[in-house]
Amino acid sequence: MTLRLLTGAPRLQARLTVAALAALALIGTQATAADSDDQKRPNIVFIFADDQCFDTIAALGNSEVETPNLDRLAQRGTTFTHAYNMGSWSGAVCVASRMMLNSGRFIWNAEPLYRNSEQERKAGRWWSEYLKDAGYRTYMTGKWHCRANAEKAFDVVRDVRGGMPQQTDAGYDRPQVDPQTGEVTDPWSPSDPKFGGFWQGGTHWSEVVANHSEDFLRQASEESAPFFMYLAFNAPHDPRQSPAEYVAKYPRDQIQLPSNFLPEYPYADAMGAGHGLRDERLAPFPRTPLAVKTHRQEYYAIITHMDAMIGRILDALENTGRADNTWIFFSADHGLACGQHGLMGKQNLYDHSVRVPLMVIGPDVPAGEKIDQPVYLQDIMPTTLELAEVEKPEHVDFQSLLPLLDGEPSRYESIYGAYLDRQRSIRTDTHKLIVYPRAGVARLYDVVADPHEQHDLAQSAEHQGTLRKLVAELKELQASMKDSLDLNL
C-alpha cells in the first residue's frame, strides 16, 4: 500500500503526528496482510455441462468419443466415478439439479424454495453469495435455469442463457425410414446454422462461453482477489449442433448401438417418460438402430466441440499465472439415455440419466486417481465453501468432497433417486431398486454383475430377500428426505 501525502493540505500535514503515522503504517500492514490472504485463498473454476452422461469421456473408458481436454482434467486430478443427481420435481430435470446445487439443499428441501429462490439469494443463502462474502470476485456465463437473479448473484455476468436453445419441428421424430423403400429421410442438419439453436445470435453458444471466459481470465490475471467462475455450457443438450467437422468425426455407420438398447421401454407411461414427453419425441417410436445411432453421433460431436472450448478455457487459465492456486471442478447437471433402455431423455433413474462425470483438480489433489465412493454432484458446492474457509451453513445438506480426497469414506451409505411422483430408487454398492408406484412395479438390478442394468431380478425367487431389504431401506431413506410418497408395494 502506498501512502500519498497531499502537499496542498498544510493542516493535514501539520496534524500527522508520530501516532498518526504509526496508525497509517498499521493500516498499510493490514492491507498487505489482506492482499496476502487473497493470494493464498484458491481460485475456483466450476465447469458445468448439460445432459452429459458419466460414460462419455475417453479417459474414463469410452473408446468412441474424442475428449482430449476432459482427458487432460482426468489425468491431472481425481475422478469421482459414482456421482449422482438426486432427480427432479419437474420434467425439466435441469431445474431441480441447479436449484439443489446453488442452494445446497436436498431435493425435497429445495423444491418448495424454487419459486422464491431470489429471496434465498437476497438472504445470502446461495452459493455465489457465500463466496462473494468471502472476498471472491464472482463470474458467471451460460445456462442458469434458476429463478434467482443471475445478474445480482455474481459480480460479473455475461450472456445468461435459458434452459435450452430454440427448437424447430425439424429436430423431432427423426430420422425416418420408409418401410416400403428403405429410404432415409431427415430434415434436420446438426451443422446448419439456419435452424438457430446453438447458433442463435451468430456464434455457437459453446464458443460464447469460451470467449467470455477468456476475457474474464485476462482481467483476473491483473487482480489480486481470488475468483470464482461458474461456466455453464448448454451443450450437449438438444438440439445437438456442432460444426460440420465435428459431426464428420463420427460416421453414423461406425457408431455402436448401446448394449441395453430397446425399441421401447415397457413402463414408459407409468414412469412419466412416454410418448408425450418432449425429450422422448426426439426420435421415432419404436426406436430404431438408425435413429439411436444418429442421435448418438450428434451427441458425441457436440461433446467433442464443447471439449475444444474447455481446452481454450484451460489454456487461458494457465496464461493467468494463477493456475497453480486454482481448483477446477467439472461435472454435469444429470446424464442422458440417448437410446439406452428405449429412452431418449433424462426423466428416469437409470445410471445413464442420474450418474454424471465429476472431476476435481487442485493443489495436492492426487493425479489420475479414481474414487468410487457414492457422492452427489451438488457436493461441489460445500466443497468450495470449505476451500474458501466459509463455515458450512446449517441449511446445506450436501457434504464436502475434501475428506474423501484425504481417504475418508463417503457420508452416504446409499444413493436416493426421485422423479415427480412417478419413480423412486435406491442404489447401494451392489444393487439398484427402481419403483414405479403408479404401476406397482419394482425393478431390481445387480449393478456389479450387470452395470448396464439390463436384467431385472425383481421376480426372481432367489433375490426376494434382497428386494425386501432394499424396499425397507428405500422407505427409511424416503423418511429422511421428507418424501411421503407411497411406493405401492
Structure description:
This protein has 489 residues and is of the alpha/beta class. It has 2 domains: 42-413, Alkaline Phosphatase, subunit A (3-Layer(aba) Sandwich), CATH 3.40.720; 421-489, Arylsulfatase, C-terminal domain (2-Layer Sandwich). Helix content is 31%, strand content 16%. It contains 15 helices and 18 strands. It has helices spanning 10-14, 18-40, 68-76, 93-103, 107-110, 117-122, 127-133, 150-153, 205-220, 244-247, 289-319, 351-354, 380-387, 402-405, 464-480; strands at residues 43-49, 78-80, 83-84, 87-88, 137-143, 156-161, 176-177, 184-185, 227-232, 326-332, 355-356, 358-361, 369-371, 375-376, 415-419, 423-427, 431-436, 441-446. The strands form 4 sheets. It has an 8-stranded mixed beta sheet, with helices on both faces. Strands 4-15-16-17-18 form a 5-stranded mixed beta sheet. The chain has a 3-stranded mixed beta sheet with strand order 11-3-14. A hairpin with a 3-residue loop joins strand 15 and strand 16 (423-427). Helix 9 (205-220) packs parallel to helix 11. Mean pLDDT is 92; it is low at 1-25 and 29-34.
Tally of individual helices:
15
Q: Write the CATH architecture name of the largest domain.
A: 3-Layer(aba) Sandwich
**Strand content bin:** 15-25%
Biggest sheet descriptor: 8 strands, mixed
Distance between the ends: 69 Å
CATH fold topology of the largest domain = Alkaline Phosphatase, subunit A
Helix content: 25-40%
Q: From the alpha-carbon coordinates, what is the Rg to the nearest angstrom?
A: 25 Å
Q: For the record, what is the CATH homologous superfamily label of the largest domain?
A: Alkaline Phosphatase, subunit A
The first-level CATH class of the largest domain is given as Alpha Beta
Q: What is the 3D shape?
A: globular
Residue-averaged pLDDT, rounded? 92
Low-confidence stretches: 1-25, 29-34
| Total count of domains | 2
Structural class: alpha/beta
Q: What is the total tally of β strands?
A: 18
Q: Taking strands numbered 1, 2, ... along the chain, how are they ordered across the largest sheet?
A: 6-5-9-1-10-12-2-13
